[in-house]
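Second opinion, please. Please look over this fold, written as tokens:

===
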Amino acid sequence: MYWSTLARNVSLRTLHIAVICTVLLLSIVAIFSSPPPIHAAGETVNVWLTTGDLSTHLAPQANLTFANGSGGGNVITVNENQTYQQMDGFGASFTDSSAWLVYNKMSSSQRSTLMNNLFSTSSGIGLNFLRQPIGASDLTPPAPTVGEYSYDDMPAGQTDPFLAHFSISHDTAYIIPVLKQALQINPSIKIMGTPWSPPGWMKSSGSMEGGTLNSSAYGPYASYLTKYVQAYQAQGIPIYAITPQNEPLYVPNGYPGMSFPASDETNFIKNNLGPTFAQNGITTRILGYDHNWDQPGYPTTILSDSSASSYTAGTAWHCYGGTVDAQTTVHNSFPNKDAWETECSGGTWENSNGFPNTMSLLIGVVRNWGKSVVRWGMVLDPNGQPNLGTGAACSTCRGVVSVDQNSGNVTYNGDYYGLGQASKFVAPGAYHIDSSAGSNGVQDVAFKNPDGSKVLVAYNSASSSQSFNVQWGGENFSYTLPAGAAATFKWSGTQSGGGSGAPVGKTIWLKATNGNYVSARIDQSNNPLEAMVTQVQAWEEYDVIDAGNGLIALKSHANGDYASTRIDQSNNPLDASVTQVQLWEEFKWLPQSDGTIALQAQANNDYVSARTDQTNTPLEAMVTQIQGWEKFTWGQV
């Protein structure tokens, strides 16, 4: 009986163990064989609206909710996995006139309210970029109250090459106190300085107006700008960036200005300003040009000079001539240099409250690599006063806000609300991320904040309301925007699907480490892709196609065929020769830390390379690690 009982117990134990093992095995199989969990939809989207007539301004709207799937119609696709430039901020210029009005024509309580509305990230719109004139501009109160001035004015016929009389005492009366108040409210503000003119004794005209910089004054002028940075730093106001000259291709009548041709500014940066900053341990960025979009050759001259370029962070742009895509043109030629839009005034000539132009400026600048969006005068009175009142000094400009000189009352103009649609929600350090351009008059731009939240700004420039869908990975929401209105959408979460990180839907060029563009043309026929062309035409343009599963394909713009590594199913030079996307036409888009990208062929896991035997040969997918010849810069056509 004992043995039979023992045998029965052993059999039961064995059975129990077998059952447990079977359950565990089936569980493991289920875990590894089941499809990946579907990303749960339902992220909340916060919405703020400003209408074209400003009757509704930065007003919270009912929350939206993402739903799984894709929307139809007018679709704006947001891809947070493709990042572009990191933003510096949004703002305007606290000119002499602006600071004078705020400090002298407002009570302390009125001033406090205005400054909080301008710079607070909670109670205001969080402006965080100021472009400050170095000395007088046309938006300076007229003489005898102020008039034209520099930080080293001398009697006629006298000079001060060692800058013994340098002083920023003028600014300590009301400009510096206002800037300190702004920084106290928002410590993340970046301040750049721009001179409308060097001191008159440095110039051929002997005046703040007109003329050119004397050859003997190049060194003193570099020291002058150095002393400016140091003096402001001593006041607790760091200067983030500087330009050598405001609008160097325009010599105004009646207010400070100077002709400073591209070759002269290039020489000044490389031989004087850059070295002087370096010798004094100044890390303030030097931005070139500071003028309109219509003369991209000017910044190209600076950035093409290796010595000047080594001291130059990038280009400052104005909006008064040409088109905003000049920023992209220069960026594509110098992808390691940045772009800042630093002046675009509002005024009576716009025939609007400033909102339409501010919205179009904001979206266009950022979509063309701009790190800043800057209007001109921060504060003027309703009549565009005060200004120098002479010659071409702007008497029709409009401030971002208007302050009545008699009562101190404030009118918040369309420029204020336009900037606020982004500045209130886009945090310092945010990146511009990819979003497809809307249609039917809808314009848009998107950002990703350091905390991972996404911000989409959409503006309806059409004369009727427009509906659209926002596609974010595998989710979407729909919205209808009134004519002339702008909305800001903000949400958190992580994008699911649809995110290769590549500029899907865009037409791009690729440039190899030898400085040549990847081309499919050679002798105008369909040949292996080579990096051997020095300019971009149709055979150097490729549409980036979403191949699914985080992969992309490259479609030659010239013949409509896809770049492929297969040909006869072996590893051969890349050819634009295939009419459909299969395994050999699929690539991983791999951003590199230096801003370049690498392409990994999905079929063999090797990297696309232009090197082979270290000479310029057809591109092949045959290298197992990424080095120089496997890295490509790229730009949008």
Confidence is low (pLDDT under 50) at residues 1-39.
